[in-house]
Amino acid sequence: MPALPTFPIDDFPVMWLRDNCPCADCRDPRSGQKLFQISALPAALRLDTVTHTDEAEGPAVEVIWAPDGHRSTYPLTWLEANRPGGPATGDRRTDDRKELWKAGDLTGRLPQAGWDEYLGEPGVRARMLDSVLRLGFMLLSGVPEREGQVFDVAETFGYVRETNYGKLFDVRVEPDPNNLAFTSARITPHTDNPYRDPVPTIQLLHCLVNDADGGDSGLVDGFAAAALLREEDPEAFDVLTRTPVPFVFRDAGTELRADRPLIGTDPLGRVREVRFNNRSIGTLRLPAAEVEAFYAAYRTFAELLLRPELQLDLRLSPGDCLVFDNTRLLHARTAFAQDGARHLQGCYADLDGLASTLAVLRRADTLEPLAQLFAGPGSAEYLGESVSMAEHMLQAGARAEADGAPPHLVAGALLHDVGHFAGAVTGHELMSGTDNRHSHSGADLLARWFGPAVTDPVRLHVAAKRYLCAVEPGYHNRLSEASQYTLRVQGGVMSPAQVAQFAALPGAADAVAVRRWDDEAKDPDAPTPPFEHFLPLLTALLRG
Amino acid sequence: MPALPTFPIDDFPVMWLRDNCPCADCRDPRSGQKLFQISALPAALRLDTVTHTDEAEGPAVEVIWAPDGHRSTYPLTWLEANRPGGPATGDRRTDDRKELWKAGDLTGRLPQAGWDEYLGEPGVRARMLDSVLRLGFMLLSGVPEREGQVFDVAETFGYVRETNYGKLFDVRVEPDPNNLAFTSARITPHTDNPYRDPVPTIQLLHCLVNDADGGDSGLVDGFAAAALLREEDPEAFDVLTRTPVPFVFRDAGTELRADRPLIGTDPLGRVREVRFNNRSIGTLRLPAAEVEAFYAAYRTFAELLLRPELQLDLRLSPGDCLVFDNTRLLHARTAFAQDGARHLQGCYADLDGLASTLAVLRRADTLEPLAQLFAGPGSAEYLGESVSMAEHMLQAGARAEADGAPPHLVAGALLHDVGHFAGAVTGHELMSGTDNRHSHSGADLLARWFGPAVTDPVRLHVAAKRYLCAVEPGYHNRLSEASQYTLRVQGGVMSPAQVAQFAALPGAADAVAVRRWDDEAKDPDAPTPPFEHFLPLLTALLRG
């Protein structure tokens, strides 16, 4: 056994370590959710024995806990990545995770894309959604100028948030407006719906008509403005973060009120939300001195927000759709001639859905090497069979799925032969009499993405053939000719001792199941879904 | 002129006072939104002259501002109600606006109602919605046991929030659950979707079937628990308010993460949000000492939340629908026999919509005296006409509405004759030759609810008759007999001097318009909507 790296596990707080135990008793293997209460752990928890081991996925630390004897195994890579005090990650809502900007910073690099490429190319879509999180907005062009089309845009990344304005709102001049947005007046930079709590975190504006003189749009990065305020007038910044301001809206059927600061910070003092709308600030009820301090700070921030260098000017053309973070960006529009036609349609959505869509898109990115493998070398002939290697694996996955197999076995069936491309010894050499140990090299390759539930059956799928030949009458004769040939190279039919040893392995049953789908998946006429079909299933199985 | 009370207007911060100017240049009369930027006000703003005046609505303070000469008129009642340092109001999200409870506190006073009375009686509906804000929940019974019916419940107060679980989620045992909710396991008290930001603030659970052994529900007031924690272990409370905790969820199509503290406070330290779910707490990345402090506090809070005296036990029966504040209440369920049938349907919604619905319901409460007036004395005969007084006013309102009149004129037409019931001198005495000055007593009565836009045309609608008789040939002859009779009692046809004086009044045109709808509204066959038809319009016109 090679020397294992040691790891300073004592540096980790015990409760944290135990709370992160990855075993199947502590976390539901399907949902990944924790199965125990923090209060159910022994109060006097401590490490009893610590052993460094070499697991299929790499070196690991095995802990046996006192007083309850629970056993936890932590991969070293995971411990290293999550060492206490390491760089904090976060949910991308706070200003430290953003790229703050003034208008000039975006010259020549507006986050924009055409609707067709946005829809058609996952990479473009990911870049655009990332822009909403990073810069606060994206601009799509060529979005069909149909009423209600803005919903199609929202549905690419999330869910529409219905409000008293409806699911969809029309921004045009109305005869009896309940909101200045529906007049032709100039509107200075503001966030929408500050009187709502929870506030809609994303706004979409889709331009259908813009023939009016004026009616140009502007965007201001409220986080950049807050950073400037903190730098230039820290006392004003503090006042605005600690003063809840009543925002109010009322019309015939609605009466909304939220009491929130103009600049919302998280417990660590990071800016998390800007809420600014002069039109709907209600009457503050505070001692006179606090009112005065607030108004001075409010005025300072309002003046700062109007600095021309902060405002990015845009003119929306028909087919443009602006998508922006309503907790960060302020939007504005210039006045326009009342007789000019201007018609936008808008709706609200939320950042959490968008961030989720982006994360899932990126998972697909991480599987790209596997997709390449199916498209490239895997599409070559399968050694001695009448389907290609890729077809063979896709059929195995499809059969597992059709049989109602759990996701990890569908994945195992789909990926069982990737080792033919991964090891130092190729499949062709296997056919010339040299075992390429492709079940092991495949499992090792797959461990980059998946846990043992997927990799174990792959690792054992050749052994399962040798096992079945020993225990199942007629199995050997049903094997394809090529399989019968490689059986000999791979060690031949198992001995009774080997059979007993194999059957005792925890993953034996899963490996046998994968083996049967493997054996059936060599039919040139069988259904063969594309690799993309399996992406959602595979991404859900990716290691956390 | 009577002596006017004086008011210490100098106590008010000038920027606050000016920002609250109610004039039509400062606030859009229709939307109530502010029309100016705070930064557009003169920096060196001060009171130039202050005069106490007597307006139609009562005593007021008129301010002329320096240096810009702007004029603002503040009703004394408004100044008194909004004096700086007076009792703060708020948005009802913070713990100081709640009634905190332990299970025993609710014995015999569960906030519950039957579905039919909830739907049919606005008072019951208001009491139930208020319970959600005050206690954190309401329990409806007798909700039809139809799939999707939970949407009907949500629509009584707000909008459904769609998530990755769909618009609707089924809580029952699923073959391949992505969440423990969809198994038969016990689930300890928790809030839902802590990994979502913004988190859904309301949850609805509608019971369709509950034949299983077990599967009982429990509710814990998280704000009460947080208050206990603050009292018993202030350091633990502080740690939980200042430590952002990663909450995570992932499945095939979703990857959510929110970093929020277990106890969220507002800038004034009031508890505003509890987020607690052991299943989805991810891996904290903090220095070891902070991790240890967090785990100690987390454990203390978790143990506290499990105290039996905190948990209200409920067993949902088919037809029950539980609606609760997901930012405050934790919900739990006992384990149940996997073969027993248990099926709930749930959806999410938001508190802001519910609070708005309640506020609007309460506006209707405030109009109740007017509704009573139409239903009671107003339904009596109209003096000398072939419709009742109520029918006459409803027809006038309907005609104004049909003519596309703005809301304040529809209201004026609808309410122009309420003075017949309000004054010391009745309508019958008018018909015996004593002017009851019902236009004035009506306007005075209405000033309790409405501003001068509504009350002025009412006050002048008798004068408008006298005016039209003077200036419009044929008008007098078209009047009903009763109207011709009362004209004499009311002062007769205007003299040329009176005509000039009337025409110069700012409300003259509105009063003439109301007068014409009045004159036309005496037709027993004309459309006569019920008073409730006008409630949304009237409530929108209520004084702020």
Structure characterization notes:
2 copies of one chain form a homodimer. By secondary structure, the first copy, chain A, is an alpha+beta fold. Helices cover 37% and strands 18% of the residues of chain A. Chain A contains 22 helices and 17 strands. Chain A has helices spanning 14-19, 76-81, 115-120, 122-134, 149-155, 222-232, 234-242, 288-305, 351-366, 368-375, 389-402, 407-415, 419-422, 427-431, 438-446, 452-459, 461-471, 475-478, 481-489, 496-503, 508-520, 535-541, and strands spanning 46-55, 58-66, 71-75, 112-114, 137-141, 169-171, 187-190, 202-210, 217-221, 245-251, 254-260, 263-265, 271-274, 311-314, 321-325, 329-333, 342-349. In chain A, the strands form 5 sheets. A 6-stranded mixed beta sheet of chain A has the order 4-5-15-8-17-6. In chain A, α7 crosses α8 (288-305) and α11 crosses α21. Chain A is elongated, with a radius of gyration of 30 Å. The model of chain A has no long low-confidence stretch (mean pLDDT 90). Chains A and B meet through α1, β10, β11, α8 and α9 of A and α1, β10, β11, α8 and α9 of B.
Task: From the structure above, extract its key features.
four-stranded antiparallel sheet, NE0471 N-terminal domain-like, 22 helices, Double-stranded beta-helix, alpha+beta, 3 domains, 544 residues, homodimer
Concise account of the structure shown:
The first copy, chain A, is an alpha+beta fold and 544 residues long. The first copy, chain A, has helices spanning 14-19, 76-81, 115-120, 122-134, 149-155, 222-232, 234-242, 288-305, 351-366, 368-375, 389-402, 407-415, 419-422, 427-431, 438-446, 452-459, 461-471, 475-478, 481-489, 496-503, 508-520, 535-541, and strands spanning 46-55, 58-66, 71-75, 112-114, 137-141, 169-171, 187-190, 202-210, 217-221, 245-251, 254-260, 263-265, 271-274, 311-314, 321-325, 329-333, 342-349.
